Amino acid sequence: MKKIIFAIAFIIFTGSTALLAGNLRAYLSYATFTSPDGPYIETYLSIDASSVKFVKLENDKFQGTVNILMTFNQDNEIKAYKKYELKSPEVKDTSNMDFHFIDQQRFLLNNGIYDFNVQLSDQSYTEEPVPYTQKIVISYPEGKPAVSGIELVKSYTRSDQPSEINKSGFDVVPYVYSFYPQSENRLIFYCEVYNMDKLLGEDEKYLVSYFVETLENGQKVKGLGRNKKEAARRVNVILANLNISNLPTGNYNLIVEARDQNNEVIAMKKLFFQRSNPYARLTMDDLTMFDATSSFVDKYINPDSLREYVSSTYPISSALEKNFLKGNLKKADLATLQQYFLGFWQRRNPIDPEKAWEEYKYQVEVAEHNFATPVKRGYQTDRGRVFLQYGPPNVRSERYNEPSNYPYEIWQYYALANQSNRKFVFYSPDMVTSDFFILHSDALGEIHNARWQVDLRSRIFQTIDITDTQVINAWGDMQEDYWTLPN
Hints:
This protein is α+β, with helices and mostly antiparallel strands. The protein is built from nine helices and 26 strands. The protein folds into four domains: 139 residues, Immunoglobulin-like; 139 residues, Immunoglobulin-like (Sandwich); 89 residues, no CATH class; 92 residues, no CATH class. The strands form six sheets. Strands 12, 13, 14, 15, 17 and 20 form a six-stranded antiparallel sheet that branches. Strands 1-9-4-3-2 form a five-stranded antiparallel sheet, with no helix packed on it. Strand 24 and strand 25 form a beta hairpin. It starts with 6 loop residues before the first strand and ends with a helix.
């Protein structure tokens, strides 16, 4: 299978999945599809050229080479694999390596759950490759309506020439990253809807909806959604372009739905992404359009008290609401605060917003009792924020007196929204206030710190190598055990 290579010249701050192997830096994403030949997975791998050693060729140009091994294991058996060399574009000099080169591969796999393993190494170094493993689920029941994986797209052009990147008459260049910096103002994506003709009949009309919602509470983002009528086919192609220039910084989901003639959701796919856009701001009318007269907020007539209540909602606020609070909370008058507070809870419980507030207020009091410090309210601390946003953990491991580590806690959630078995590491490097800061988590939208064990031990051991991610366990230190098997 041919390797598809492109040079993309923009800076990446984070990726879908960041892979580190020695000095090598790469980013990985994937999407699943199905075809008459059966289900398959496409992998999209981006290599940071500045992290690769380029060697001089006979033509006096320079080129880097990355060794790659991809395997898909099921029940301890390799179901598909590929070992190959990925060569960078040739360059005339190495003074400016501000680009990434991309590789795309395709693997036919049956429906099922797989351990997807990737190993990368720079061919010019002797370091051992560092493996990365992720569980992959492929599920396309025969003849049943389904939405494929969502492929984020950098660019596309019409083409009838067969190639690894050609889909439905378009050459589709993948956008490997789930992060959109301020310089990227378009979110382009490709996906396929399957077997709607089997459900509705050939050429019967149905609706495809795609939109952006906030990760925190599923609030739809105004202006970032479309509805499109489709004629039912075995495969319907969706290639769409959304303008995200006014989308504020935050965590979001891209949703694609197929709906029948009764507006019932038949199939759906969801993809997480992050946006950095610090200069985007909401207008006052976006979140204060509710009439607070004769509502439960009428009883809150002290601006300072109401401002505190509004501030306490920050842990469960969407990115849109957080941006509003940052820009307007301090200067808002009583009427504006009342309108915003009512709207906040009506968006969460239109039938009984006061009940939603009272239930949350009780949890704020619990957070205050358990996590407040001399200088922070409970909801302002990292533990308080996680507690209010996700609820109490199923397992809370507390380790305050290990020989080499700062005091720390590891929280485990068996289920977290659409995620399973997610964990948080908090530590307390500040011995004065005893505040615990979030150090690492594997949950979507949270801080991911591959060096968390190194930073946890920096109380005793210091390192100047920023690529260090592992530590040798010292006597009495249990952080790896508690991360693997909390108790």
